[in-house]
Each structure stands twice: as C-alpha cells, then as structure tokens.
Specification:
Structural class: mainly alpha
Strand content: under 5%
Order of helices and strands: EEHHH
Number of helices: 3
Helix content: 40-55%
Low-confidence stretches: 32-36
Largest sheet: 2 strands, antiparallel
C-alpha cells in the first residue's frame, strides 16, 4: 500500500485499493425553490400561435412611438439597417461606423424577446389558472 504525504496534511494518507473503497450513501436533499407554490402540471412552454404575433405587435407598437429626439426606436433600428445595406460588401462596424447598429439591434431584440416571453408566461398562466 502506498503512503501519500503532503505538507498541508498533518498525518499521512494511505491510498486505498479499489476493493477497499466503499461508495458513500447519497442523501436526498430537498430545497424550497421559491415561496410561491406552483400548481402541479403548470407549464408555460405550451404552444399557442397567438402569443408570438401578439408579442410582436405588443413590442412593435410601443417601440414605434417617436420618443427619442423625435424618432422611434424602430425607425432608428431600420435606418441603421439601411445604412449597413448601403455599404453591403463591408460588414457592420466597418468603415468608421460609430457602432450604433449593434446597440440598436441588441436593445430592439431584447425588448422583443422580453415582451414575447412575458406574454407567453401570462397567457399560459391565465389559461392554466395560475393567477387566481
């Protein structure tokens, strides 16, 4: 049997062979995930074709309000897309671009996906009776 020593360990450790090793018992650990009790069988991922369309419109309408220097977020994003398409062989960010294309793209899509996700959760929660 080999003896392993280290300056970090006060006593030497003996290496055990495969026959001497015993598996440790696994204990079931239960944690309370949240204080809200979710009904059994609740699933917010069920398909509902109206949710993506309503979520898209739910984001497109508010993002089209001209609130940023008299221009809407959607108009700014579409304008930056057209600027990038005018310089087609070069990619976005090339030729001294100020980087507004990527900023507008991230902000616009973040709002879109957030609206669609919250819409899906709301529609499925209501149809499955979670918000009673």
């Amino acid at each position: 049997m080999a003896t392993l020593t280290s300056s970090l360990v006060l006593r030497p450790l003996a290496a055990k062979s495969g026959a001497e090793r015993r598996p440790r018992p696994v204990r079931a650990v239960s944690r309370k995930i949240s204080t809200m009790e979710v009904q059994e069988g609740y699933s917010w991922i069920e398909k509902n074709p109206i949710v993506p369309a309503a979520g898209f419109l739910g984001w497109l309408v508010p993002s089209s309000i001209p609130a940023i220097k008299g221009t809407s977020l959607t108009a700014m994003f579409l304008g930056s897309i057209s600027e990038q398409m005018a310089r087609f062989p070069e990619g976005p960010g090339a030729a001294g671009d100020d980087g507004s294309f990527y900023f507008l793209m991230v902000i616009w899509h973040f709002g879109l996906f957030l609206t669609m996700t919250l819409g899906q959760i709301g529609v499925q929660g209501r149809s499955q009776g979670l918000f009673k």
